[in-house]
Amino acid sequence: MKRIYLDYAATTPVDKKVLASMLPYFSEKFGNASSLHSFGVEASEVVEKARQVTADFFGADNKDEIIFTSGATEANNLAIKGVVKAYYAKSENKNQKPHIITTAFEHHCVLYAIKGLEKEGLIEATYIQPQKDGVIRTEDVGKAIKKNTLLVSIMYVNNEIGTVQPIAQIGKMLKDKKILFHTDATQAVNYFDCNAPKLGVDLLSMSAHKIYGPKGVGVLYVKKGTPIKMIQDGGAQENGLRAGTINSTGIVGLGSAITGLKMSKMKNKEIEKLRNYLIEKVLQEIPKTKLNGSKIKRSPNNANFSFRDVEGESLLIMLDAAGIAASTGSACSSGSLAPSHVLMSLGMKAEEAHGSLRLTLGKHTTKKEIDETVKQLRKIISDLRKISGNILGDYYKKVKS
Ligand code: PMP
Question: What is the pLDDT confidence band of residue 276, given thresholds at 50, 70 and 90?
Answer without folding.
Answer: very high
